[in-house]
Amino acid sequence: xxxxxxxxxxxxxxxxxxxxxxxxxxxxxxxxxxxxxxxxxxxxxxxxxxxxxxxxxxxxxxxxxxxxxxxxxxxxxxxxxxxxxxxxxxxxxxxxxxxxxxxxxxxxxxxxxxxxxxxxxxxxxxxxxxxxxxxxxxxxxxxxxxxxxxxxxxxxxxxx
Length: 160
Known about the structure:
The protein has 160 residues and is α+β, with helices and mostly antiparallel strands. The protein has helices spanning 51-62, 89-95, 105-118, 125-132; strands at 7-11, 20-24, 27-29, 69-71, 86-88.
């Protein structure tokens, strides 16, 4: 319970091992698991990510009642479309470009792995991981009292 409101936490790993969704009053807040239907799904190549696990997590969300509102964490609208943040289970099941009804786990995993293989490494992945693994806290301060995010030089290859 959050005050008078019932909330259910749903573990939805796949994008990363720690992803969560929250079902609150007929709506589900899905974090990075699903995007708007025209964008599909989150990548699964981050540390601990797994395309098969992501598929099963998305199906748990898409098994909710069709009228359930879905609130996405990110939207990367294509040219000509305004940013959106709300969709429904029914809209996702009918129109999601990666996991509409009828796409099985094997098909999704094949598509997701092929797509992830050509995506660039996100510019802020290293600082993000260092903060995310600490649940939003910065690394501990060094002897000089300053907290640092570590960025290796020449350690990551871009997709190009």
